[in-house]
Amino acid sequence: MVATEYALATMALLLTTGVYYAYQDRYLYYKGTLKEFEEKEKEKKSEVQPALKRVCYYTIRHGYDDTPLKPNLLDPSVCTHLIVGFASVAYDYLIPKHPKDLYVYGNVTSLKINNPDLKVLLSVGAGSGGKFSAMVNSPPGRKKFVTSAIALLEKFNFDGIDFDWEFPAWKGAPPLDRVSFIYLLRDFRNFFKAEEKEFLLTAAVAAPRSIVITAYDIPALAYFLDFVNLMCYDFHYWRPSTPYTSHHSPLYQRPNSQDVMDNVAWTSHYWIGSGMPKEKIMIGIPTYARTYILADPHTHDLDSFAKGPGRGQGKINYGEVCSFLKGGAQTVFDEFSFVPYAFKGYEWIAYESEKSVTLKAKWARKQGFGGVMTYNLNRDDWNATCDGQTRFPLHNAINDALSD
User: Fold this and answer.
1) In the annotation, is 279 catalytic?
2) How far is CA 346 from CA 63, 227, 234, 235, 244, in A?
3) 93-110 burial by CB neighbour count: b if 16+ within 10 A, else e?
4) Distance CA 266, CA 253 (A)
5) Can you tell me the distance from the alpha carbon of 240 to that of 319, in angstroms, rounded to the nearest whole number?
6) Which residue windows are transmembrane per the record (predicted)?
7) Which of 283, 264, 286, 249 is nearest to 377 (CA)?
8) For residue 14, is pLDDT > 50?
9) Active-site residue (options: 47, 166, 279, 354)
10) How far is C-alpha 128 from the chain's CA centre?
């Protein structure tokens, strides 16, 4: 029995040591470039900073036919960067999730005819582990992916590629994901340089610290990426482990709240402190709301007990929020967290309003961040439900806040 336990312990130690040295060997390949990055950042401080970015995600829902917001209904003036999601990976190649997505690609990039300054990127969506992880951890796989991605970007006139990988080395995924992701970005940069391509390279990144410390080498990301889209939302939503109401995108912590890290201000400055220059951080703002079913309609404050997710299986568009408010719901604006919530009967909704997104955008500008990212255009009131005349009211409010 003792001999068996000793043998198992020895095997575990050898495996752990093997992973450690593999990680170290890979890290040495790009470690030296970080000094070069730090020198470049010092030079940038003396340069004139560019205009603030307005990065907007546009998602293709289960294929073109099931996407209510068609490309011809988009407003190319509300964004400086438009990111189309999401492409996928198969046999280490970048491919559209649905054949008709190719039709969307061409129609979205054609928006640059009316707005030549618009940059359109293609986003690759991936969860923990799976085909994307397998590709990233294989040098031949990365090579196939990079070459196929460049071919797709060029064919449909994209300006760059975005990665929405949720998340590297997370929830049982290979620990080497964290380093191999950097390898993938390095391979893209090397290809851009060798072929004299000027594509943008960006990524959507997590806000929770528990994910960040596991999934990302932030200084290396800062070196290879043009900017990151910080997903400052879904800090809270109904789950069996958190059966109570709260904001899902608060700017600041509420007094007496134990959720010190679950807010935009804390997590964005954590990324700065971890090595990401603030001008490369886009502050994420959601256009969707989180919904709850209250256990007691007479108990409707923050932190009230909820029986489950509300309408829309816990998530609704801004236009639906406006309809809820018009139906007699009472709204409360939290002067501490700078976001509103609303309730009526058993329904409770945490959402973003034109007031709250204006405050967030002005805060991002004052703090010196590179701009704002929204997720997404589809969830904004694109058909003017709220006032009968304004399309994309949340995006327009952000634009006004960043340009006044």
Assistant:
1) no
2) 34, 41, 21, 22, 13
3) bbbbebeebeebbebbbe
4) 8
5) 28
6) 6-23
7) 286
8) no
9) 166
10) 15
Judge contact between 341 and 290, C-beta under 8 A. no
CATH architecture, domain 50-287+352-403: Alpha-Beta Barrel (3.20)
Confidence band, pLDDT 50/70/90 cuts, at residue 305: very high
Give the start-to-end residue ranges of the domains of the chain. Answer: 50-287+352-403
CA gap 404, 400 in Å, rounded: 6
Q: What is the pLDDT of residues 258-286, one digit of tens each?
A: 889 999 999 999 999 999 999 999 999 99
Three-state SS letters, 266-313: HHHHHHHHCCCCHHHEEEEEECCEEEEEECCCCCCCCCCEEEEECHHH
pLDDT tens, residue by residue, 342-375: 999 999 999 999 999 999 999 999 999 999 999 9
22-28, long-range: CB within 8 Å, 24+ apart, which pairs? 22/176, 23/175, 23/176, 23/179, 26/176, 26/179, 26/180, 26/183, 27/179
**How far, in Å, CA of 329 to CA of 42, rounded?**
51
